[in-house]
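The freezer alarm interrupted the setup, so I double-checked each line after restarting. Inputs confirmed:
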Amino acid sequence: QVSLKESGPGILQPFQTLSLTCSFSGFSLGTSNMGVGWIRQTSGKGLEYLATIWWDDDKYFNPSLNSRLTVSKDTSNNQAFLKITSVDTADTGTYYCTRIIRGTGDYWGQGVMVTVSS
Amino acid sequence: DIQMTQSPSLLSASVGDRVTLNCKASQNINKNLNWYQQKLGEAPKLLIYYTNNLQTGIPSRFSGSGSGTDYTLTISSLQPEDVATYFCFQYNSGPTFGAGTKLELK
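Predicted 3D structure, all chains:
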């Protein structure tokens, strides 16, 4: 069965870099047309789609955050990664990873809470 | 960016009611629309994909319809466990979510 789980630092300070890991099972990012997406939920913007990494290493980034986002993957270890540079309080929220298949996020992780505070 | 507008933002209904939630896109999204249900403290759960396809394991009282810019999620007979916030999501271009409809029991 498919499962995903996000992990991250919990709390970080403004201007630091947020690094999140999505560890998954039940599918492979080596499979054609498979992707992992990153979504966050904040009090300010609700649900916001951040980025996708695809099986072929193609990537999508939300244009409003493009310059701050990096995504990567470790196919052998069934992990995907998201980095957001220069965080501020507006980046506080819950971050989710999701399996993307046929354009749809069908299975989601439980989410990880991230707080940006000085 | 394609903007997704959901209405109403809050809906109160009784058990057994037929409930309709609406989602309007700022441009044609070619039926590339999903519906998600989010209960308090949980991750969103996929209910409907590509406008009208029921995700595996989702009760048949949920259905979706629409085309172009206008889409609808219908619950044929509201159950207590359906209390949640419902989000539409378009993946036609630059994926975006609606702000949600909070469904509560009257």
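Quick read of the result. Chain A has a mean pLDDT of 96.
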